[in-house]
Amino acid sequence: MVALAAIALGACSKEAANAGQDPNNDVKSFRDLQVPTGFDFKGTKTITVKIEKQEHLPIDLKSVYRIDDQKGNALLKYNLEVAQGLEAELEVPIGTEELYLVDSYGLKRAVKIENNNLIIKSL
Amino acid sequence: MKTLIKYALVIVSIISAHNSNAQLQFDFTNSTNLARHSGFPWGNTNVLSNSDPGCFISGTTYGAYYDANKDGLIPGSSGYYAIFWTPIVAVQGSYTATVEYTATGNFDIWSTIYNVANGSTGNAQVTQLGAAATKTVATIYINGATSGNFRQYVNVRNAGASNVTIHSITLTSATYTPPVSGCSVPTGPSCTDADSDGICDNLDDYPNDPAKAFSSTIPWMNWMYEDLFPAYGDFDFNDLVVSAEREAITDADNDLRFLKIKAVVMAAGAGSAQGWAVELKGINPGEVLSVSGSSLTDNVMIMGSNGTENGQTNAVIPVFDNFHSVINSAGGPFFNTKPSVPKGTGDTITIMIEFSKNSALVLGDLDYNFFSFRTDERGLEIHEMGYSPTDLADMTLFGTKQDASDVNSGDYYVSVDGLPWAMSSAGTAYPTEKTDMLESFLKLATWAQSGGALFQDWHTNTLDAAYRNAAKIY
């Protein structure tokens, strides 16, 4: 009887310890993780920002642009030669799906990240 | 309203009556329909979308000017460009823009449409044209199907050398409302630029410092470490937790001039003292002019006069060499990992790294490699998986105990089970002392085993109770 109670108590404790864990995943210890080869546990990803050449604009025209995150942090601020365009890399948290292009007048436009590229065709 | 607008750019002006060779410039009257704005109003929604809807818009920079003797528009002060926008037109369906011009040589016209509703431009079209002694009509833009309110943008290039005059412009299938009382002619004050770096103060993050113009920031992130490398530990990833923000500061030329790192030790559930540093991969120590703010109390690193560590190929900058020197513990050897112990605070360490202007570094040259190191054993570095050790790491540790780094392929800091000793994340929480990370963050296992495809917010989702066990998070 005592042994049964101990077993039952142990089972309850284990359930409590694992309460809320993803029911679709029965791995309970970090050491037991089976990860795909090459997975690096990085919490960020590198995306490429491509602002395409705006050849219809004056060659020597410069204008200040920002790439902001959803919280309004300026991840990239740049004095852009608009006729030349820009290609730059940014480090953003994984799961980031869109960022914002902000021009020098404060106009803000959402741009989707697709295949780790943020492509801006027109300004 | 007009349905077929032909803006004969014979902008009837009183000024031409008393100055036969005048460019209209800023001396417009209410008989004109050309509004000239300070600078170049491209991208300025206040002007292009909201001002003078019935007027042509030009700018004092790159703008087109009216010349009565030539019966049309000629280049402005640039001598190269003649740029203008038409009044706002309502378009439904296809339309075509043509210009009537004369010229003594070759030139081209770039044209696009400006969408009044959202400020966007698109579908630029270029037309190459040649000399024309008499007025000649050319199509400069064809739009197959569109609707909405637009201004047609026209950029005449090489207009000066070829003596181009644009006499008129015609847009088919477009309607517009002419101005009731003429067009305003804003002159606008030029912007204030206190440090004379060419960037207006309202856009300059450092308006009083010509070496600094723009701030680009990577917001606060956490780096979490297991400190027993190359052996496994308890996987609570709180032996050292450092939160840091990075601000790269560039000048008006977009050259990287400064890097500011703010860092706070959030937790230190370790028995051994550790330091924390960053290697800037690809940046030579000689490209660093100075470093300020590093907390160096234990003579762990041998420093160069510029504040980088000696003996390194890439610039290595310590943030602190002993976490005990930058925390204010409220009791006990474990700093902010045991809920039963009063919470302590970490100092905010601010590192300022100055780069040489001559190095011509840019933002993209910043390749961060943060790492912890043992205060009493400099060579015992711990980096995130896949990041290389610095020149001063103890290479004999690789391949021992649970480490499976492949020195030949460059795959470092990976265990025999494909696991890391360090992780970084935009999330801020970490497990309590001796709590396996999986018990605290309930979607972490699925994220990792899916190769990062699922539950990418495993650490940053603080609202959904299904993601975390609050009792096991410090």
Report the β-strand fraction of chain B as a percent range: 35-45%
* Average predicted local confidence, pLDDT of chain B: 89
Total beta strand runs of chain B: 24
What is the helix content of chain B? under 10%
Overall spatial form of chain B = elongated
Biggest interface, residues from each chain: A-B, 56 and 75 residues
Count of individual beta strands of chain A:
7
The structural domain count of chain B equals 3
Low-confidence stretches of chain A: 1-20
Q: How are the strands ordered across the major sheet of chain A?
A: 3-2-5-6
Proportion of residues in β-strands of chain A: 35-45%
Question: How would a crystallographer describe the biggest sheet of chain B?
Answer: 8 strands, antiparallel
Helix and strand composition category of chain A = mainly beta
Count of helix runs of chain B = 4
**Low confidence ranges of chain B:** 1-31
Helix content of chain A: 10-25%
| Rough outline of chain A | elongated
Instruction: Return the CATH topology of the domain at 44-120 in chain A.
Output: Immunoglobulin-like
Radius of gyration over C-alpha positions of chain A, nearest whole angstrom:
25 Å
